[in-house]
Amino acid sequence: MAALLGTAAAAQETPWTPPSGQTNPWAVPAATAAPVAVSPVLTLGSPLSVSGGPWVPAEVLFFSAGRVVADYAWRDSVRARRGRLYTAADLQSDVQDLMTLGRFTTLTPAVYAIPGSPVPSEFSAISVSTNQVRVVFEVMEKPVEAPKVVFVTPPTAVGGVLLTPTAWRGAGRFENPGMALDINAAYFIGRLYGKNSYPDSPRKTNYIDRIGLWTLTADGKMQIQSETRFRPAVAVGGQAMLVFRDSPQPTVTAPGVSVKIDTKNTKILTDGYFVASKKFGPIRTSAGMMQGTIGNLAANMSEFLTPEALKFYTRDNTGTQVVSRTVPFASAFYLLKPDYPIGVEVMKFNGAARKPMLINLKIGRFLKMNFDLALLKYQGGYDLLGFFQFRYNHFPKK
User: Fold this and answer.
1) What is this structure's pTM?
2) How far apart are CA 219 and CA 228, in angstroms?
3) How far apart are alpha carbons 339 and 346 in whole angstroms?
4) What confidence tens digit (pLDDT) does each residue in 324-383 have?
5) How far is the C-alpha of 150 from the C-alpha of 259, rounded, in Å?
6) Which of 153-162, 171-180, 269-278 has the highest mean pLDDT?
7) End-to-end C-alpha distance for the chain, whole angstroms
8) What's the mean pLDDT when you consider all of the chain?
9) Separation between Cα atoms, residue 187 and residue 389, nearest integer Å
10) Residue 246, number of CB atoms within 10 A of its CB
11) Residues 349 and 164: beta-carbon distance below 8 Å
């Protein structure tokens, strides 16, 4: 085929127009490009009927918008070979094969006798032309659409659910034991609805109250056992949580007294933990234990769990505080898509006054936004909280 296209470069600047009166015998739509003047210096040759033949080709050319074009896929679809017989049936098959490429809206074939290029002697009695021919295809290419840009959301980090960790690393693709580090941020906006039965509480029902509590957590772990068909993955790690507010915690108001609580708006809570995780079908489950000051978190989420509230609302004058050093937890979540998790986690603050328990629901993507819910249940009441949460997998990256 390279020999057939040997003179294509010489005709690179040669415009071409189909000869007048020539038709396309195979019902392929004719090109609609505007006629271009033929160069007086170099012509394609004397036009021949495309329904004649056989011929002896010397070269094959493709024209588009009056210019010579070349594409290896087009060349490989053509049967014409230099120094071999080429019939009208071959030309018809070439047109059909080229149209199946799906690259053209129209295609018009033409055959030209090349002056001064006699056919080989063995074909002189067979060829309809005494000269070798130039096979030309005038094509109109389909417009090429620019590829659409697809924005792919990174897969969800499965190293943790909301506030609790798992034994997996990264996005769950790392099955061998190793190190991992997640950065987790949560913002508890406020209380959507709450109810309490404290004897001296001024209101038994509360709703749409501002909390403004931020938690920024660094969660580092080492997976010490990988997951198999029957055994869970196991990891040990630690968390350091910076807790701060963008608004003061609500005051405790009782008859004749109003106490502003939580004068220290920035705290650091820490814990060490172990956790085991196992997949049951598409559901990923985890259970573990935290040890440390993370048990003080519950008292920061509601003014009804502060020492002031317990003193003035429940008539407890013993200085009771809602603190815990042992927090068992469990979680389960399901990836509807790699970046679309839903799940639930439970944290129990063992030994703390009022027996608080925190249930977090990861349902933000289900609601078409990143807004999640938390239920803080304690002896004497509950608060339904709304919050945003973002987990970033820092290591391993993928």
Assistant:
1) 0.63
2) 24
3) 22
4) 999 999 999 999 888 888 999 999 999 999 999 999 999 876 666 688 999 999 999 999
5) 55
6) 269-278
7) 48
8) 83
9) 6
10) 12
11) no
Look up residue 83 and give its two tokens.
């120094």
Residue 73 backbone dihedrals phi, psi, to 5 degrees: -65, -35
pLDDT for 151: 63
Contact 305, 299 (CB under 8 A): yes
Structure letter (DSSP) for residue 288: E
Q: If 0-12 CB within 10 Å is exposed, 13-18 middle and 19+ buried, where does residue 92 land?
A: middle
Using CA atoms, how far residue 216 sits from 185, 187, 233, 298, in Å, is: 5, 9, 26, 16
Residues pairing with 140 in the sheet: 106
Nearest to 43 by CA among 70, 75, 7: 7
Beta bridge partners of 291: 272, 326
Q: Taking Cα atoms as reference points, which of 130, 144, 164 lies closest to residue 348?
A: 164
Q: Distance of CA 255 to CAs 197, 199, 227, 315, 320, Å?
A: 17, 13, 58, 13, 21
**Pairwise CA distance, residues 91 & 106, whole Å:** 16
Q: Enumerate the β-bridge partners of residue 348.
A: 357
Separation CA 215–CA 388 (nearest Å): 10
**DSSP label at residue 295:** G
